Amino acid sequence: MTEVVIRKIVDYIEDTLVEGGRQVPVTLRMAATAAVIRNPWAGIPFTEDLQPQILAHAKVLADTIVPRLVALMGGAGNIEAFGKCAVSGTQGEIEHAAGLIHTLHFGNVFRIAAGGDSFLSFTNKRAGPGTALTIPMTHKDSEQKGARSHFLTMEFVIPDAPGPDEIVVTLGAASGGRPHHRIGDRVNDMKMMGVDQAGRPLSAPQ
Length: 206
Hints:
This protein is an alpha+beta fold. It has a single domain, classed as CATH 3.30.1330.110. Strands 1, 2, 3, 4, 5, 6 and 7 form a seven-stranded mixed beta sheet that branches. It is globular.
């Protein structure tokens, strides 16, 4: 079985202080930690069973990325939204990238560490060095999953990754929703449309 080879780890942080020309009441921090690893399936024939390498890599990646990102956010209590991303280099498959992030042995470690119970929004794709690492995020709590204030997207690049035989695996987090969010939410929309959350007409007032 191929050993886990991490070429580099990259941290990314952005703190938003002003949005729309107006000071934000509370600084919004969005942060990500990415691991650039050798693709264990690159350069070999089509592999039917990806599970052995997924299991071999998942714990190492989780142990490497999760504590580092939680620390960048100043602790789980400062995380309100999260997401994940993986990009396979051109010698790999999109399935290789997907396999390393769509496993409970990876994502669930972050979910627990962040104190959430919702699934992580994601992107997975194949691309070359310098591609945008796009991390969509939503609220970490399942009851707040539809909170539009926390529909966020973070992007950054690693100029030399992924190489053709590499995969970039990334987790992202945010300390809150968009500054000055004011587009309402699904519940209010349903009320305005006269239907409940299942799309059924609301009862006429007595």
